[in-house]
Design goal:
Layout: E1 10-13, E2 22-25, H1 35-45, E3 51-56, E4 69-76, E5 80-86, E6 91-98, E7 103-109, E8 127-142, E9 147-151, E10 159-163, E11 179-185, E12 190-195, E13 207-209, E14 219-224, E15 229-236, E16 252-268, E17 278-283, E18 291-297, E19 305-306, E20 320-325, E21 330-337, E22 344-353, E23 359-362, E24 380-394, E25 402-403, E26 410-412, E27 420-426, E28 433-443, H2 449-457, E29 460-463, E30 469-470, H3 471-474, E31 488-495, E32 500-517, E33 520-525, E34 542-550, E35 569-577, E36 602-604, H4 613-619, E37 622-631, E38 633-637, E39 648-655, E40 662-669, E41 675-682, E42 687-690, E43 699-706, E44 711-719, E45 725-732, E46 739-743, E47 750-752, E48 757-764, E49 770-780, E50 784-794, E51 798-800, E52 803-809, E53 827-829, E54 835-842, E55 853-855, E56 870-872, E57 884-886, E58 892-902, E59 916-924, E60 931-933, E61 936-942, E62 947-955, E63 961-967, E64 974-975, E65 981-982, E66 988-990, E67 1000-1001, E68 1012-1019, E69 1032-1038, E70 1050-1058, E71 1062-1065, E72 1067-1073, E73 1082-1088, E74 1095-1102, E75 1111-1114, E76 1123-1125, ...
Parallel strand pairs: 43-50, 52-59, 61-70, 72-79
Antiparallel strand pairs: 1-2, 3-8, 4-7, 4-8, 5-6, 5-8, 8-9, 10-16, 11-15, 11-16, 12-14, 12-16, 13-15, 16-17, 18-24, 19-25, 20-23, 20-24, 21-22, 21-24, 24-26, 27-32, 28-31, 28-32, 29-30, 29-32, 32-33, 34-35, 35-39, 36-40, 37-38, 37-39, 40-41, 42-44, 44-48, 45-47, 45-49, 46-48, 49-50, 51-53, ...
């Protein structure tokens, strides 16, 4: 198996914690990768990586507060499906579709049942939020007088070492002011060690943990299983201990597997005792993600005013900060400035934090009431340490000499090492939150004024998926708001509530969102890069890949590629490993540690590059199909799933459409922020079928040929690509013996260079009637290139007319037939091939002198012979063949057959074969002149048409003749109810036969009238298969005195019924991806199945519908308008299918064929025959809009024990919606809502007293939106 483009294109070293980006681009195949693409890749590498799996813990809010509501905000850069579940409890709770880029889904929780309030027990309450795409998750908890939130960390960024940071316990005599932390595990058998610390507290301080009673200084162990969490909060040993003594800040939590830590406070004021208290919560960064340098901007509220003489806007009393150390002998420098003037307010140097877990705060005189001149850190601040630290920023209570909306909150300050390049975030949607702010900090370049402006101008923000706007345009002070002595600038922008925002930049940024309402506040970081900072890893992962066509899904792991079959695919398999072969350490590199990969490898598409549709299609033509994990080992998955760093693994990539090029640029990013780019480049084989003039062919059509003859056609297989193509097989797929490959199928494998061709010859020997379809199949290493072969297995069909000379006097030679016309015959070809007549012979010999029948060709020599045949084209009739004569030598009937020799099909292939003419006549005596009657031949008439004619009866005798009757009792003719004399098969009749009885006919030399009578006859063929004998006649009998014997005077009638017939065959295509052309080629066939007549096609057209554009027909649909299809012949259209939409999935086009395949009475009728072209479209993406306004909420009471159940639901717009209640078995028990409702919030109340105890499911559906809530009934 030949591997295509085994390419290791790009190797990039990038540390997101560093200052500069550097990379090396190398391409061995510049055909697909352009220089412009390479130049644009850098902007993709700057993007912050997000996770796709999060643990969310509902922190314990003030239990006494009413109007409780918790919310989970889920933000995504791309459309995706999001799931919320409780793995160790309720299972799947809800699913959401984020239907547009940078969209938000909101999961609302109106019950406190998920709050973790246990006393060092292992509740199974944590929630799992996950998606198939990268997402960001924020949590918010709200009540009437308390609110807070945190930015959740993806599980792949969790660590094993944390240091707790919160605030002093504020317990009064009632139990609602706990401070503490929650430990969450994502793996079974997670062992945790807690080193309980408290600054200036000892074992006898009276401060213990509530539950096990651990004291300050204790080291205790915990064991947790997957998706369990444990709460550790404070308690005091006796009531005499003063409030606020307990504070576990500085407590170390160490585990053997990654865990999550959530620091919180139920409700507190800052400082203790001040008016204004609130809930605090934050998910902590593990120590390995801490930094050494931080900047902050003072939190502000628009309604804030000071109430002391020394408290003035905008600095007021500043903010409270805590700085926590993880290592002993940590040295801290802190400086802060007045943002209005840039003047330094204060600078503290060399602050010692010792031992590990020690912490520093400011202001240190945290007492209430506030002493005059005592402030927190005001304005903008810079924190620097010699070792990693954690910085937490807090709001003071409003009562700390301030008025307005300003309650305590707690937010992590992002270290500069974790600044990234983009974020997606949501402001709180709680209705009582009145003010929202977003503080953004961005890195500039103070050494270069021009570059500084360029960098800061790239900082843009978008609201609710709208246009990106420059921050400098929204805040004119942004370019001058510098953090003194640094390269960083800041802006605080007002935001709207319940709104989503996205930030994109080309420089490093960080920020945090916060807001205030009446007695409430919240804050959380906007985003962080989450790169490893505690260990040095500056080397990129090693990556290499193999590729080929695989039929067995696991073959590539054993190096066994196989040729594509029905299920084959072209795959790349990339093997990656965090770098292990380090160079000898030097003073610039130093010791290295393998940090492994925490983020799923992802595709990159160059930003700001206006790709053509063709270029974009290459990037869209490849997907990640499976992940393999070698170190640590775990089972393969179709979605990235790792909760610990992966050091070695593999990824399977699959090309969607192997007939088109594919390009994937894949980023591998380790925990140190180092990046390797691997380029997967698939260049499709491109073979075309062409004729000798290099015109592209879609089918190879022999047309209709004569049976048992030999025909050949040549076609050229052309390599239209710019690469060499290896052809491994050439064969006829149908193995039909009428076709054979007589050239070009030997000497395989065949290698065609660019623009080279190979001639292939097909031989066709038809053996049966009808069209035979086959295809020539060519296999390259990966692809199949077929071309349909059509051949009409045609025949010539012969039908010879007869000659009836009528009554002729014995001894008289006549060249005229019964109609008194010169006797001749004609030959019709009803077949699809040319009829060639090469000779003739009599059934039994006719004497050249005495006959009684004669064939005297005129002009002389015009009779058919091998050297001078008579040729009749398909569907045509020959000219008149003459001349013929009849010479009776006795009275009575005469009849003989004249056979014609030709290439016409025999009776096995043509049961209607009539290769002879019947010559007949009747000898009559010389005596008295007698009555004479004409005959008639209607020729071909459509079945059920009415064709009338007048037969003339004359009297060549000397006496009057009187008609006694017109009848034919010999052949069983009957008079019907209309008085017509009708032949047995109903095809012939004499109209109103009774009217002729008693009528007299006078001799032609008489002076009396009438001398002739017209007899009206009718031919109405009942079928196109003749049922009457070829010699149909009716008799005219006269009264006895006329002397004419009965049944001797007759008129011969003849005619042929014809009927066009139609058969139409459509096509059903397999499921095909939206916007992609189906590899399978279809056909639309219109066939004339008649054995008697051509078929006229008046028009071919679509019925009319939106899906018809999915189907392309060659030739154009109306090409055959007005065309006649010969007997047993057909018209074939080639059909291609490309679904342009995925809704509906079933794609149908109705083709209407106006034709004349109908019986009479109309001579030229028109009917419409229809046929369907069918296909199925695979859904790719459905974009309906933002569904964050769709939810079901406030189900109360839950559990339900009786009375009215109340719930509310929200709709983003007027839409059909159903809300249904199912029992535990999945059975529908009640429909609560069904129909179209207006957009907005709706309240519903319903009595469920008739339902038994148990667990029920409430499902709300509206379009693609679906949400599930659980209801417990207890009676």
């Amino acid at each position: 198996m030949k591997q295509l483009n085994l390419l290791f294109l790009l190797l990039i070293w990038l540390s997101l914690s560093g200052i500069a980006y550097s990379g090396i681009y190398k391409s061995e195949s510049p055909g697909l990768i352009t220089d412009e693409m390479c130049a644009k890749l850098q902007s993709n590498l700057l993007k912050t990586r997000l996770g796709n799996e999060y643990m969310v813990v509902v922190t314990p809010n003030d239990l006494t507060a009413s109007s409780y509501l918790a919310e989970i905000y889920i933000a995504a850069k791309k459309p995706c499906k999001v799931y919320v579940e409780q793995p160790s409890g309720d299972g799947l709770i809800a699913t959401y579709d984020i239907l547009k880029p940078y969209g938000i889904a909101v999961h609302r929780i109106s019950t406190r049942r998920y709050e973790i309030r246990g006393k060092e027990e292992e509740p199974e309450l944590p929630l799992r939020v996950y998606s198939d795409k990268e997402i960001m998750v924020y949590f918010a908890t709200h009540a009437s007088a308390t609110a807070e939130g945190y930015m959740a960390l993806p599980v792949n960024a969790l660590g094993k070492h944390y240091v707790h940071c919160s605030f002093n316990s504020s317990k009064f005599d009632y139990d609602y002011g706990h401070t503490g932390f929650i430990i969450g595990a994502i793996s079974d058998n997670t062992n945790v060690t807690v080193k309980l610390r408290g600054r200036n507290l000892g074992p006898n301080s009276g401060c213990v943990t509530d539950g096990a009673g651990h004291k300050i200084g204790d080291n205790f162990k915990l064991r947790l299983d997957e998706w369990q969490a444990i709460n550790v909060w404070d308690e005091i040993e006796n009531a005499n201990i003063a409030k606020g003594i307990c504070d576990f800040t500085g407590t170390e939590i160490i585990s053997d597997k990654p865990i999550a830590i959530y620091s919180y406070h139920e409700k507190t004021s800052i400082p203790l005792g001040a008016v204004g208290s609130d809930h605090l919560a934050e998910q902590l960064l593990p120590v390995n993600l801490w930094g050494k340098e931080f900047i902050s901007v003072q939190l502000k509220s628009r309604s804030l005013t000071g109430r002391a003489a020394d408290v003035e806007p905008p600095l007021f009393v500043g903010d409270y900060f805590r700085v926590v150390a993880s290592e002993p002998d940590t040295r801290l420098d802190v400086t802060w400035w007045d943002p209005r003037t840039g003047a330094e307010i204060k600078s503290l140097k060399n602050q010692l934090l010792n031992p590990d877990g020690d912490w520093w705060d400011y202001n240190p005189t945290l007492v209430y009431p506030r002493p005059a001149g005592i402030f927190g850190i005001q304005g903008v601040a810079l924190f620097r340490a010699n070792k990693p630290i954690q910085v937490m920023q807090y709001c003071y209570s409003t009562g700390f000499d301030m008025y307005g909306s300003f309650d305590p909150l707690m937010v992590l300050v992002p270290p500069l090492e974790q600044y990234g390049y983009e974020t997606v975030f949501q402001t709180s949607s709680y209705v009582d939150m009145q003010e929202h702010n977003f503080t953004i900090l961005a890195k500039g370049d103070t050494n270069d004024i021009v570059k500084n402006k360029e960098l800061l101008s790239t900082v843009t923000i978008s609201e609710n998926g709208g246009k990106y706007e420059r921050v400098r345009d929204k805040d004119k002070t942004f370019l001058t708001n510098r953090i003194p002595t640094t390269e960083y600038f800041y802006s605080t922008l007002p935001c709207k509530g319940s709104s989503s925002y996205a930030v994109k930049t080309q420089t490093k940024v960080a920020g945090y969102i916060y807001g205030f309402g009446n007695l409430i506040s919240y804050a959380w970081p906007a985003a962080m890069a989450l790169v490893e900072t505690s260990e040095k890893d500056t080397l990129s992962p090693e990556v290499h890949h193999v590729s080929g066509c695989y039929q067995d899904a696991n073959n590539y792991l054993e190096g066994l590629p196989d040729r594509i079959g029905q299920r084959g695919c072209y795959k790349f398999v990339s093997f990656y490993a965090d770098t292990t072969n380090y160079p000898v350490p030097d003073e610039t590199v130093g010791p290295q540690v393998d940090l492994g990969l925490s983020y799923s490898p992802r595709f990159l598409i160059p930003d700001e590059l206006y790709l053509s549709d063709e270029e974009q299609a290459k990037f869209d033509n490849i997907e990640i199909s499976r992940y393999f994990y070698f170190k640590p080992h775990q089972a393969p998955t179709t979605d990235w799933l790792c909760r610990e760093p992966i050091h070695q693994g593999a990824i399977e990539f699959t090309v969607f459409d192997m007939y088109n090029d594919a390009l994937g640029i894949v980023e591998y990013r380790d925990r140190g922020g180092n990046i390797t780019l691997d380029t997967l480049e698939y260049i499709a084989d491109k073979l075309e079928w062409r004729d000798s003039s290099s015109v592209k062919l879609d089918v190879l059509d022999f047309g209709s040929k004569t049976i048992d003859s030999t025909y050949t056609l040549s076609v050229r297989l052309h390599n239209a690509s710019q690469k060499e193509v290896t052809i491994s097989e050439i064969f006829l797929s149908g193995a039909n013996p009428v076709y054979s490959l007589t050239k070009g199928a030997s000497g395989l494998p065949l290698i065609l260079g660019p623009d080279q061709s190979e001639e292939i010859e097909v031989t066709y020997i038809p053996t049966t009637t009808g069209t035979v379809v086959d295809s020539i199949v060519v296999y390259t290493d990966c692809l199949k290139f077929p071309i349909f072969v059509f051949g009409g297995c045609g025949t010539a069909k012969i039908e010879v007319t007869d000659i009836d000379f009528g009554q002729v006097v014995v001894g008289t030679k006549t060249f005229f037939d019964v109609n008194n016309s010169q006797a001749f015959l004609q030959i019709t070809n009803k077949g699809s091939e040319e009829l060639v007549i090469t000779g003739y012979h009599w059934e039994y010999p006719q004497d050249a002198t005495t006959g009684p029948f004669f064939y005297e060709p005129y002009p002389v020599g015009s009779e058919p012979a091998p050297s001078s045949p008579i040729k009749v084209a398909s569907g045509r009739t020959s000219g008149a063949i003459r001349r013929f004569a009849f010479l009776p030598d006795k009275t009575g009937p005469f009849e003989v057959k004249l056979y014609f020799e030709s290439n016409a099909a025999d009776l096995d292939l043509d049961p209607r074969r009539k290769d002879y003419a019947i010559l007949r006549g009747y000898g009559i005596p010389q005596p008295q002149p007698a009555p004479k009657v004409t005959s008639h031949d209607w020729g071909e008439c459509r079945v059920k048409t009415l064709n009338d004619w007048d037969i003339e009866l004359t009297n060549d005798g000397n006496n009057k003749l009187t008609i006694k009757e017109i009848a034919n009792v010999l052949d069983n003719w009957k008079v019907d109810a209309n008085g017509d004399l009708v032949s047995p098969d109903g095809s012939y009749c004499v109209l109103n036969v009774a009217q002729y009885k008693g009528k007299a006919i006078y001799p032609s030399n008489s002076s009396e009238e009438p001398k002739f009578i017209r007899i009206r006859v009718r031919f109405s063929p009942q079928t196109d298969t003749p049922l009457s004998p070829p010699n149909v006649k009716f008799y005219i009998n006269f009264e006895k005195e006329s002397g004419v014997p009965d049944n001797t005077i007759y008129s011969s009638l003849s005619g042929k019924g014809i009927l066009p017939k139609i058969s139409v065959t459509g096509y059903k295509f397999p499921a095909t991806e939206e916007g992609k052309e189906c590899a399978e080629l279809g056909s639309l066939v219109i066939r004339n199945t008649s054995e008697s007549s051509k078929l006229h096609i008046k028009s071919v057209r679509f019925l009319g519908g939106q899906q018809e554009t999915d189907f392309t027909l060659t030739p154009a649909l109306n090409t055959h308008d007005g065309t006649d299809i010969a007997i047993n012949d057909s018209i074939v259209y080639e059909v291609k299918f490309k679904p342009l939409n995925a809704t509906p999935a079933a794609r149908i086009a109705r083709v209407l064929i106006d034709n004349d395949a109908a019986e009479g009475p109309e001579e030229f009728p028109t009917i419409t025959t229809d046929v369907l072209l069918k296909g199925e479209a695979k859904d790719v993406h459905s974009i309906l809009g933002d569904i964050s306004s769709f939810y079901i909420d406030n189900i109360s009471p839950n559990p339900y024990s009786g009375g009215d159940l109340r719930l509310s639901y929200s709709l983003g717009f007027d839409v059909d919606v159903t809300i249904k209640l199912y029992d535990a078995s999945g059975k529908l028990v009640k429909t609560l809502v069904d129909g179209k409702k207006e957009g907005g919030v709706h309240n519903l109340s319903i009595n469920l007293d008739d339902l038994a105890s148990g667990t029920y499911t409430i499902i709300m559906k509206s379009g693609l939106y679906e949400e599930t809530q659980r209801l417990v009934i207890v009676k």
